[in-house]
Amino acid sequence: MIRVAIAYFVIACVLIAISFVLFPFLGVPDWGTRLLPAVCALGFPVALALSWIYERTSGGMVRNAPISRSSAKRLDVILFGVTVTVLSLAVASHFWSTAGSGEQDGLPQVLPDEAIQSQVRYPDNSIAVLPFVNMSDDADNEYFSDGISEELLNLLARVRELRVISRSSAFSFKGKEVDIPTVAQKLNVAHVLEGSVRKSGNRVRITAQLIDVASDSHLWSGTYDREMGDIFAIQDEIAASVVAELKVRLLGTAPTSEEINPEAYTLYLQARHLGRQYSAESMEHSNALYQQIVDIEHDYVPAWSGLSTNYLNQAANGLLSSEEGFDLARSAAEKALAIDPGYAPVHVNLGWIAYGYNNDAAQAARHYERALELDPANIYAIRSAATLLNSINRPEEAVMLGQYFTARDPLTASGHTNLGSSYLLVHRWDEAIASYQATLKLSPGYIGAYYRIGVALLLKGDTVAALDAFSHEKDEEYQVKGKAMALHDLGRHEEFEAKLAELITRWGSDWPSEVAHVFAYIGDADNAFQWLNQAIEQNEEGLIEQIFHPFYDAIHKDPRWDAVLRRMGCSPEQLDAIQFNVILPEESS
Fold it and tell me: Where are the domains of the chain?
């Protein structure tokens, strides 16, 4: 009976161990894995009762009799073999789970699905538009096929009842051998629109097909062989067919393309393509093309808006001085606004100028709010609005916008970083870590990601893991600053003093707020305010974006804190005066 009890226990362990390995591959639900141990437990007393009454012999099942010595030895050998098997499975299971989890150096890890995919499962009205394949004889016409794909994406995105994945995530698969189910799984969509474009002289041939991912079948396909003058009608017909096939019940009229001179339109697609390459030459060429476009079609607002965006990017990348870049960007945006006050991207640019150059949060709020009124699903307006909300101490709303953004643009690393920063401001450390881990999964070399993970761990109280994360950071300043704080908490004071001195010597003059962070974190209010005031005096870039960081929590009760906030225009009274009503877009279920 004792041997039967041991054998039953060992065999049950084998079955349970195997279930953890096989059940997920076989698609067995989680409850199946949980049910098996319960069944084994219920069967245990039954097996004991039967072993008490019966034994199996060559003549069949008979009433129990004393077991022979030879039979006992055979049973012992069997039990030993099964026990070794169980132990081997346990060791292998531990090895596989550790290897598969990606854990290294004590850093916390998250599963890929937790890291990249949205928390919201997309319903049937979700779609990704992949870059159409360039089938033209001239490889340089790729800008045209990409442009047509993006125009279709933008057209569908204006259908509020649809959930359309952003260009940056959808186009991340360009040139890669990835099957449609994998693309859909990574983008979390139910449908994919793909196709090809062939341009020859004044004629264009566009083929498009709408794929239902669940059934891996084509819901619709169409081929259009037309003159370039019909390109806008083609785009409208494709969009209308997609909407009809997805059985979307429109709450308003279906959006249509704006028709302009075909030559100007071709130049526009090329200018936009060049502007995204961010080199000095490509951006200058893009600017020249935009100027050609407005010479042909002076009232074409997307061209003026594109020119404004170029100037902003040139300033951001040091290709123009801040003053010149922002002035040129404002001038182009105002020309666009004079033509069409209802063009949302222009308001996003003007909000960027007000916030990033004029340090005018109230004006930025007005432009972002207007942009979202005009185009509630514009993810660039949503991302900018989230950044502003963090700066005016409304991080809970920023979290909601950040979640919406990463759902629409799941494969953009910076989106997860921004969401992580919002989580940090509301003290949701684990969710912040998960967001930063998503950043690293998408972009392993992302500057500051390991540092931010370390910050979240530090604030969470896991100092040893925080020091480990800081050690992985490639940016020297971030690494030195992070290590200084962790070493202080670990009581390694000599090492802390050395890192703090290095931080002050190497980066204190350019980035005094970084030094203020360390002093505020360790509770040295006098030095914290000294360095913080220095940052304000020299108008340190980005200071307003981090004034509500948890690092400063330890000095909030100091009377000097309110004075700092007022000096920066961030006191509660000043922030309450900023009217900024942000409502997430309503989506059909």
Answer: 2-101, 126-259, 274-373
